[in-house]
# Entry
Amino acid sequence: MHIVFLESLGVCECVISQLCEPLKKAGHTITYYPDRNEEEEVLIERGHEADIIVVSNIPLRKHFLDHCPNLKMISVAFTGLDHIDLETCRQRGITVRNAAGYSTHAVAELAIGMMIAVYRKIVGGDAITRLGGDRKNFLGTELHQKTLGIIGTGAIGYQVARLGLAFGCRVIAYNRTPRELENIRMVDKNTLLQEADIISLHIPLTPETKDFIGEAEFKLMQPHAILINTARGPIVNKKALHEALRKSKIAGAAVDVYDQEPPLPGNYELLNAPNLLMLPHIGYATKEAFAERVKIVVRNIEEWLQ
# Structure
């Protein structure tokens, strides 16, 4: 099999070479590209002869897949698969596997960090200090004894819940399929929106979850509530979020994901939203997570070959 890494995956080529040594000894060929290029024609040039492709969150649409006649398997170095044309893969019999679990701790820790950053206004405090300012009448807010609402209790959502419990939060959760989790009260969606001081999103993007949080949902939230999104951008309707922040329907929000990958254009609507912390999609980006996902990607290839 000809295995092509369409991008570097953020680790040294020597790491990938070492992990792929058993594959090479078994007679498979490895092609590695040390940069990230999202231009479709470049991707086609790189992958058109591949039997197996490795990619992270670069979109692979039908046009690309149609130009890869030998393709049999895609090992995705990412949790979500909404950037892959899964219907074309099904029609072609192309196996698609994700790197489930590689960034659980990375994303969960960032979600908690975003909560603290919003509550304690850490980014603004840094700017004020550098400009020669002082505390004046600033008062922050503690996580302790707040009601943390988790939407989606998969691996990441559950880890955020556990970290919230460690901070002394009361944790409630909504999941499409009800689960029994220790020290976590399961509720319906509306109850969670009405009761939670902090709402943290951890659901995949599907046709059913697009605009999962919109105008109607913001009306249910408490005016002091904050929203954290480290899941997928389109889960939250950005116009409704902008309006909720502008009219103080909620107290603040923090987002790491959008309906497009950063860099965001200068006229992107959320850039002028008040009380909003925006990060450039870094939830999964830690040294530890990147090292783990390469291992999972190669293991998925090995298991499929077996």
Summary: Residues 26 and 269 are 52 Å apart (CA to CA).
